[in-house]
Specification:
CATH topology of the largest domain: Elongation Factor Tu (Ef-tu), domain 3
CATH superfamily of the largest domain: Efflux pump adaptor protein, beta barrel domain
Structural class: alpha+beta
Distance between the termini: 20 Å
Number of strands: 16
Number of helices: 7
CATH class of the largest domain: Mainly Beta
Strand content: 15-25%
Order of helices and strands: EEEEEEEHHHHHHEEEEEEEHEE
Radius of gyration: 45 Å
Largest sheet: 12 strands, antiparallel
Amino acid sequence: MAIGLLILLVAAAAGVVMRAVAARRDEIGAITASGTIEATEVEVAPKVPGRLSRVAVQEGDVVQRGQVVAELDRAELLQQVRQAEAALRAARSKVAQAEAAWRLQVGQSSASVSEANAALGAALSKEQQAHTALGLTASSAATRVSEAAEALSSAEAAVRRAQSALDAQLVASREAKAAANARLMAVKTAVDSAAAELAQAEADEQRAQKLYADGAISSQQLDAARTKAKAARAALQAAQANVTAAESDVRLAAASDLQVEQRRQELAAAVAAAKQAQVALAAARDQQAEVRLRSEEAMAAKSAASQARAALSGAVAGAKAVDVRRAELRAAKDQERQAAAALALTRAQLTNTTLIAPVRGIVLERHLEPGETVATGSPVLTIANLANTWLTVYVPEDELARVRVGLPVRVDVDGFPGRAFRGRIQRIASRGEFTPRNTQTKEDRTQVVFAVKVALDNPGGVLKPGMFADVTVQPN
């Protein structure tokens, strides 16, 4: 006879409510218990703050290690990267200028004034070239913005025309259908009237034939009744022909839906063209960043020319001026290193806007939705690691000697009937506890039990948190 044992199942890690169920020991001594599968939870959080632009998975989805699961808005960081790149270019330009100034100053300690004049001429030439490049770039950017704005205006006008054409076609289609349906109803009414007149005429004809047979009317009266019936039949046929024609008109009116659909497609094409024009305008406006770069280069060239002038006037300063230029070069290189470090940091932050799954698992919870602002380290998703699944059961004190760490067990999952999974006892609690009050009997509630953790083999990650399973422990 089977002996009833009480096993308490706990699934706190997976958020499953704790409950106690009855376990059984069969005649050969195997212990069978039921429990709920749990898994290690991993939170996916960004390393940088920002606005969440996309969450690529839903709760319950299975994700692979390295899979992109969410993304932050990159626009601000992209702008920061461009600014950092511009700052690095400016810093490198300053290094080049500082190095040129230092070398020039070194030469000035023994160079003639004529050599300083030659250096100044070269600096002025570069300044002129930089200003020329700035003017050309600014003009090109302004032209592109103007042309793109005009193209957008034309595209938006095309959208309005396409919308008007669609509206007009819809009105014409509705009116054509209404007219065709009205005519069809009218001719059907005429058919009903003609049918009624034919029925009356045929009845009159039959009555005239009987009266003629009885000698009550003349043959002329009989012929008149027959003629009237014949005319009524012809009228009915004509009315029925009108019905056929009216039905054809209804079908033709319905065919106007194709023209409506064509107008809709034309409107969609116009809308798409307007969107492309908007993108082109945005790209043209982005070119203005190139104008800023050319402006910085022009300013740098102007600064270099000023330095050349200063070098000419200080050609006689000697070694002290060389030391000053050397210090300026060191400072410029320090600024270059700082700008390079800032760019590397910003690029790293840009990379961190893409959130990937650190483990293969199942998505338990989406904490945030697209459009919400997320702080550094704030969880966006919680993923259950399917490579680390287990069951926790509670074994009565008098059965504790029957289990040991490392003992293999058989696991049967309700979701996979007929398929057995393997597991092993991973941990046995060192301290006992009383079973909870939701146990069915008062006697069982007074039992001392020990928590036993069963690690599960999860081939293919098919076992999910929350699945109900039966664990069978064979006797030692």
